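for the recovery benchmark. tokens below, seq after
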């Protein structure tokens, strides 16, 4: 797989609160994923529950603190892939290998999907339009059974028979038999004959024969910058016939070779392809703005009404929680904490509270270049009712001004036409 920089080349300045917020947020503590249990097999890679916990905390915190000009968290519009969560609002967040945290730049293919209540839904692989004739596509990652933490004996490839069987290499690589056979075929092709002189003898502590050679799998090494720290090798004899699969943790120039072992993924849940037509909006909303139309146009961008309603539902959930937090901060006159208020945030004019409209990553990429890109927020009044959709093309981090979008059926009565927010305070992850 290649890095889809064309899809996600937009500069991302992510707002993540200081670590004390993560530790003190009861929402995250109460819903933290159990560290043990099933992990996920996405393509050729593994994401353990322990690592997913770290990314979930980042994603859930960003949902409340990330400003409107950030791509992530993104609204996850293909909820039909997870029919058991059809009554929840879903968002997605990039996930890297191991404990590598979110950073600016290309984010790769893998995404965590979670609800607005910070419940893990699953992991998906994003397939960009340039690799798929029908546009951007998603593949749901499969869960795998717990694998032994200690490396086992040499794997017999003939034992890999079932379609659920996988070859597990440490805590990062889980590949299919077909992938291994294809890698062997490529390495042993006439085209790659010139590289055979660089192949090394197999480690004697794992194999008795000195006639075996190890061949790296270069495709997997392309993901080292995303946190991959495992080198994977096929083992072949002098006739270039596959004998085994081994791996090594990188430690400078030293290799600590271990055998890959057999693992098994779980059956994926079955659901009809048409399940997405049965999605029901279970939350009430102010229909005077959106009516029953499926689309809402603002500043030349067409927004899906369901996306607006789902964002409103998430905003309403955190609105009351924010009120109690803000009242406490104001009472204690803690100016530093006041700079890190979560969304929805109260406008400088008062009476209106704004929530960044989380849109799908594909829509964000089509909303203009960085210099003239349009950003959206939704507004709520003190009764927790929708006041409108607001937009801005300014990326100023000091005082941000937003104009209200007018629905096709509305008159320009001037009510709540312009609102503004104060400066953006942010910390990057790991700072």
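predicted aa per position
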């Amino acid at each position: 797989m290649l890095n889809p920089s064309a899809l996600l080349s937009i500069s991302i300045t992510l707002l993540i609160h200081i670590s004390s917020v993560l530790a003190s947020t009861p929402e995250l503590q109460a819903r933290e994923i159990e560290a043990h249990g099933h992990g996920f097999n996405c393509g050729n890679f593994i994401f353990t529950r322990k690592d997913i916990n770290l990314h979930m905390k980042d994603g859930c915190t960003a949902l409340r603190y990330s400003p409107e000009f950030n791509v992530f968290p993104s609204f996850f519009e293909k909820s039909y892939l997870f029919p058991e969560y059809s009554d929840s609002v879903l968002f997605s967040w990039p996930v890297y290998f191991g404990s590598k945290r979110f950073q600016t730049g290309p984010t790769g293919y893998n995404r965590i999907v979670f609800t607005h209540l910070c419940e893990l839904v699953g992991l998906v692989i994003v397939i960009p339009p340039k690799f798929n004739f029908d546009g951007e596509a998603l593949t749901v990652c499969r869960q795998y059974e717990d694998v032994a933490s200690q490396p086992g004996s040499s794997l017999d490839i003939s034992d890999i028979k079932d379609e659920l069987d996988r070859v597990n290499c440490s805590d990062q690589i889980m590949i299919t038999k077909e992938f291994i056979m294809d890698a062997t075929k490529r390495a042993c092709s006439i085209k790659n004959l010139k590289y055979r002189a660089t192949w090394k003898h197999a480690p004697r502590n794992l194999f008795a024969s000195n006639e075996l050679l190890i061949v790296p799998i270069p495709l997997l090494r392309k993901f080292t910058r995303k946190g991959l720290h495992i080198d994977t090798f096929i083992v072949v004899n002098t006739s270039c016939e596959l004998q085994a699969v081994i791996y090594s943790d990188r430690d400078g120039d030293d290799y600590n070779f271990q055998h890959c072992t057999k693992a098994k993924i779980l059956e994926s849940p079955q659901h009809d392809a048409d399940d997405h037509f049965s999605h029901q909006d279970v939350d009430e909303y102010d229909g005077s703005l959106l009516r029953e139309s499926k689309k809402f146009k603002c500043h030349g961008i067409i927004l899906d009404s369901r996306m607006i309603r789902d964002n409103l539902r998430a905003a309403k959930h955190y609105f009351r929680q924010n009120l109690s937090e803000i009242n406490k901060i104001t009472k204690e006159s803690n100016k530093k904490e006041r700079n890190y208020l979560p969304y929805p945030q109260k406008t400088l004019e008062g009476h209106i509270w704004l929530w960044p409209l989380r849109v799908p990553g594909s829509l964000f990429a089509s909303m203009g270049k960085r210099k003239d890109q349009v950003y959206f927020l939704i507004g709520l009044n003190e009764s927790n009712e929708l006041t409108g959709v607001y937009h801005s093309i300014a990326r100023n981090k000091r005082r941000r001004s937003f104009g209200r979008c007018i629905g096709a059926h509305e008159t320009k009565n001037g009510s709540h036409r312009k609102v503004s927010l104060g400066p953006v305070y942010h910390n990057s992850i790991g700072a």
